[in-house]
Amino acid sequence: MPEIPFVDAHVHLWDLSRLHYPWLTPPFADDGPNGSVEAIARTYLLDDYLADAARWNVVGMVHIDAGAEASAALAETEWLQAMRDARGMPSGIVAFAALDDPDVDVLLAAHARHGGVRGIRHIVNWHADPMRTYTPRDMTQDEAWRRGYARLAHHGLSFDLQCYPGQMGSLAALVARHPDVPVIVNHMGMAVASDPAGFDDWRQGMRALAANAHVVTKISGVGFIDRRWTIEQIRPLVLEAIEMFGADRCLFASDVPTDKLFGSFDRHMEAYHAIVADFSDAEKRALFGGNANRVYRLGIAL
Q1: Angle at 48 between CA 13 and CA 237, to 5 degrees
Q2: Among 153, 175, 176, 222, which residue carries the largest CB count within 10 Å?
Q3: Residues 53-57: contacts with CB within 8 Å, 24+ apart?
Q4: Helices 199-210 and 168-177, interaxial angle, to 10°?
Q5: Where is the Amidohydrolase-related domain (predicted)?
Q6: What contacts 24+ positions apart, CB below 8 Å, involve 232-235?
Q7: DSSP string covering 241-296, please?
Q8: DSSP state of 44
Q9: pLDDT, tens digit, 9 for 90 and up, residues 189-198
Q10: How many CA atoms lie within 13 A of 293 on its CB side?
Q11: Which residues touch 88 (CB under 8 Å, ≥6 apart)?
Q12: pTM for the full model?
């Protein structure tokens, strides 16, 4: 229900006249994980977000790195911090840093100096299918990347993990070795229905991650599973994710404007609310607000 406070755990803003975003730059094609992104390749600012979210009692939101070129990552953080200082949102910031960068400690410290920064995301989705992969190799197997991951705790930063199910087994072992790095699995684990094992790889990988008490998952990005998703299709997957992690370790999120490629803000939110309609009021308040507030240490009075 819209009166339930919503702390949106995954939002992107971008000003295309300010920073360069390679993935939002022509020419556009339909051969990537998102399909063509031409429909969202326009400036999207806080007021645009608030207009999209007008029905949903947004009391806070977390900005996740929006894919600016790597050299602009700190400039993105500075821009968002100034916005937070002036307007109170984004409530939290998850910045980009390449964990395999030789100067990763310098990068992490530079982000962490900003009061709104809570964590880091370094997208690591690797898949053998060139239409699916985000990276040319599975960098999570590189020792340099793993060393960078281990440095997050020193800077008091969480990690937003965006990977594919086939990577989750080895990542779960790494995550278990670093219980002082809170992990937020993006987009419900990004199951790949066309893989030979179907959703079994997803279930196995998500259970391995969920075995670590410091790991949570966002329920968002259902269009990555099927761009033409229906509520009947996603309902069992959402409920299974909640069953695996528990209602206290799942965070609903809009992932706008990216998820607008697959349906409006309202369509996604209506579906999520309908799927958990039979949950208790306390569970719904946790799923839509309390968990994000706790995990990202936002300090919002709910």
Answers
A1: 70
A2: 222
A3: 53/6, 53/8, 53/254, 53/256, 53/265, 55/2, 55/266, 55/269, 56/2, 56/6, 56/265, 56/269, 57/2, 57/3, 57/4, 57/5, 57/6
A4: 0
A5: 7-298
A6: 234/271, 234/275, 235/275
A7: HHHHH-TTSEEE---BTGGGGSS-HHHHHHHHHHHTTTS-HHHHHIIIIIHHHHHT
A8: B
A9: 999 988 888 7
A10: 16
A11: none
A12: 0.97
d(CA 95, CA 111): 7
Q: How far apart are the first and last CA of the chain?
A: 15
> For the ranges 131-135, 184-188, 196-200, 228-232, which has the lowest average pLDDT?
196-200
Query: Residue 33 pLDDT more than 90?
Result: no
Q: What are phi and psi of 297, to 5 degrees?
A: 55, 55
CA distance 208 to 176: 10
3-state secondary structure of 84: helix
- Cα gap 67→122, rounded to integer Å: 10
Cα 242 to chain centroid, rounded: 16
CA distance 287 to 219: 9
Give Cα separations from 208 to 138, 174, 203, 293 (angstroms). Answer: 19, 11, 9, 24
Q: Which two tokens stand for residue 76?
A: 């993105």
Residues 100-148: tens digit of each pLDDT: 999 999 999 999 999 999 999 999 999 999 989 999 999 999 999 999 9
For the chain, what is the total number of helices (H) and then of strands (E)? 10, 8
Quick one: which of 53, 127, 64, 125 has its CA closest to 97? 64
d(CA 55, CA 52): 8
CA–centroid distance for 198 within its chain: 22
* CATH 4.10.410.60 fits domain 6-295: no
Residues near 95 by Cβ (< 8 Å), separated by ≥ 6? Answer: 65, 73, 74, 76, 77, 111, 117, 119, 120, 121
* DSSP-assigned letters across all residues of 138-179: -GGGSHHHHHHHHTTGGGT-EEEE---GGGHHHHHHHHHH-T
